Each structure stands twice: as C-alpha cells, then as structure tokens.
C-alpha cells in the first residue's frame, strides 16, 4: 500500500509517546515504511493481525527497526510472512511476550534464535503448518515461564538444549510427533522437560503429582492429597486452598492460568 508507506513515517513522528499499536484486518496493507517503528520510542505493545497482503520481503528493514522498549509482540494471520521477518528480533531486549500464529510460510526462525530476548516470559507458536523447528537459544531465557506450541505438525522435536529451569508450563497441542517425544513414558525429549511443573500434551497433564504443585505454590495442605492418582490429584481441602490462591489476585499471570487450567480440567469450580 504505497500511500500508507510514504505517509506513515510522518504520522509516527507525531506519535512518539504511543505505547500500544494494533494493525488489524488491513486487507490492502502490503508493506510498512523503511523506517519501521523506530520512531515510536515508547511503544510497548505491537499487534499485527490479518494483513493478508503483508509480505516478509518488504518488512525486514521495518522489523529491524522495532524499538527496544517493546514488551509484547503478537503476529497472526499473515500468510506471506516467512523466517526473514524475524531477523531483527535480536534487538528486542525488553520483550516479555512473543506470540506468532497462522503464518503458513514460516518454516524456520533465524539462526541466532531468541537468545537475546532475556526478559521473555511467554512464548506462543501456533498454527504454523510448515514450521519445521523451534527457535534456538531457549535454554538461556532465565525468565521464560510459559511455552505453548499448537498445531505445528512439522515440528518433531524440541531443541537440543534442555528447556530453561524457569519454565512453569509447557503445552503441546496438535503436534503428534512432538507429543510422542515429550511423553514421560519413553519420550526422547522428556529429560529436557521433566523439571517443568506442568507439562500438558493435547490437553492432558503429564506426570501429575502434588509435590511439584506444592513446591511451586507452597500450598500448606498439599500433603493431604492422594499422590497415587494421576488424573485427579487435588482432593479434599486442597480444593479450598486452590480456590483461595486464585482469589488472592497476587499471583503472576502464568500461575493463575495454570490454576484455571486445573480447575477447568477437574470440573469442580465454576468459571
């Protein structure tokens, strides 16, 4: 969209205090200006959703110009976006959330991976049918808490390195070969993830035990649960405890999400 590309930079110069920007359902948007978003020095949240004509070949310079202040980046429903689009992400040292979905041309991430995203807490990759490998450099992300991989059937294994100790939740959904490798029983990748408190494979908790739960959330009555049950492992007064923890409202987003997953799974607490 030439007009947007030519006039966009001048518009951005007048919006240096902008913190949140969503570009959504822009059918005619084919490119972004060469200057990218570097003029938005206060930008914290960027979302690009359903821009079907947006091409990665015209965006490399734009992505490389993303401001280092960015904390959340969500890219979805962009059929022409490929791996080159992410070349400039190494500069996003403040990024806490990175989500990419519905990008069928994405087959791989740049070789440098995500090792420079030292503040990343949440990583979500979904519906990228031709993506063959996960980004490298995950092990060094000491703040990563949640990692979701959904409907990326070409991903057959985790990266060679062990996933970071900070991870609280790993969810694998719609990735048959990856799921098999992540199973506790005979999964080749299980040693890389056995330290993660909550591993969820196609909606089912793997290796459930209240010891991990009690250690992570310091639940006082966790010893009253029944360790011998795999599919229902929060019983009796522990229900009250979990409900109380949810109601306190001072847990990180990741913890609340996990607790809500458990409540939904067990079916004993209304949404």
How is the secondary structure organized here?
Layout: H1 2-13, E1 20-24, E2 45-49, H2 60-64, E3 72-76, E4 97-101, E5 122-126, E6 146-150, E7 169-173, H3 176-182, H4 190-193, E8 198-201, E9 204-206, H5 210-217, H6 237-248, H7 253-266
Explain what the structure shows.
InterPro entries: At4g27190-like_LRR (IPR057135), LRR_dom_sf (IPR032675). Pfam families: LRR_RPS2 (PF23247). This is Disease resistance protein At4g27190-like leucine-rich repeats domain-containing protein. By secondary structure, the protein is α/β, with parallel strands linked by helices. Helices cover 23% and strands 15% of the residues. The protein is built from seven helices and nine strands. It has helices at residues 2-13, 60-64, 176-182, 190-193, 210-217, 237-248, 253-266, and strands at 20-24, 45-49, 72-76, 97-101, 122-126, 146-150, 169-173, 198-201, 204-206. The protein has a nine-stranded mixed β-sheet, with helices on one face. The N and C termini lie far apart (44 Å).
